[in-house]
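In response to reviewer comment 3 from the previous cycle, which asked for concrete evidence that the modeling workflow produces usable outputs, we include below a single protein chain processed end to end. The sequence was submitted unchanged, and the resulting structure tokens are shown without manual editing.
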Amino acid sequence: MKDTRFTLYRIYYGDALIYLGRTKQPLQNRIRGHLFKKPMHRSINIELVTKIEYATFQTEADMNLYEIYFINLWKPPLNVDDKCRDDLTVSLPDVEWKLFQTPLWDKWKVEIEKKDNVCRMRENEKAAQFELKRVMRKKWHDGEISEETYYNFIESLV
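The workflow returned the following structure tokens.
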């Protein structure tokens, strides 16, 4: 028999449940995908996460049923699919939630901080270039520099 884990997990910011997800892959891989903004993963801010809990199920059908049930019961703000406006009229037995922990958490924080710093540097560079272009365009319109000088400057930025 194939050893597949059918897992639901819930992510908290403070005391607030913000996201409920499911996975058939190892939970550590799925959580890393959220933190590093992988495609098909809801983006989660590692600095705000206070805890992650998980529950495992025997079948994929059970996992899928409980995912929709819990999303509609708790209405986590980052879950936008499978959420209904009205309240449930059924209830399912509760499940056992366990605390997710990984020794990689601190390493992930460092990696994310490095990526964030690079992104901030790029944003600052773009903002500086935009400001330089604005200043040069004003100088051109005010007659302080020629059109040729302005366009040569713009080409030098590219």
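DSSP finds four helices and four strands in the chain. We consider this sufficient to address the reviewer's concern, and the full set will be provided in the supplementary archive.
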